[in-house]
Amino acid sequence: MSVVExxxxxxxxxxxxxxxxxxxxxxLRYDPEADPRRVHMALPGxxxxxxxxxxxxxxxxxLAPAGSDEIRVWPCGRVQAVIEFHTAEGVSVVEFETKDxxxxxxxxxxxxxxxxxx
Length: 118
Prior knowledge:
Blueprint: E1 4-13, E2 23-30, E3 38-43, E4 49-54, H1 55-63, E5 66-67, E6 71-76, E7 80-87, E8 90-97, H2 98-112
Antiparallel strand pairs: 1-2, 1-8, 2-3, 3-4, 5-6, 6-7, 7-8
Helix pairs in contact: 1-2
């Protein structure tokens, strides 16, 4: 089993217009030996933030709203998906193109020889 790493562009949504940087690079990473149930997302910043998201939650959220108190995922129209991260410091809302997340999830299943869920 090999590690899957993919770069994607995402838009971090803020309520402070001066802080809006447009699309930013995000690293999507899946290591089936270290953490087979979760994918990791590294978001830029100072310091950079890394989130661990259940792979199953990400899959579900691409089709319909899913999540818990800390992480929520939902489709936004036909081409975007939103991931909302909640912490004591506040909320980060990140918009991805659905095709990027779908391609990444397919690669994670290929890396583990698991069938892709439908």
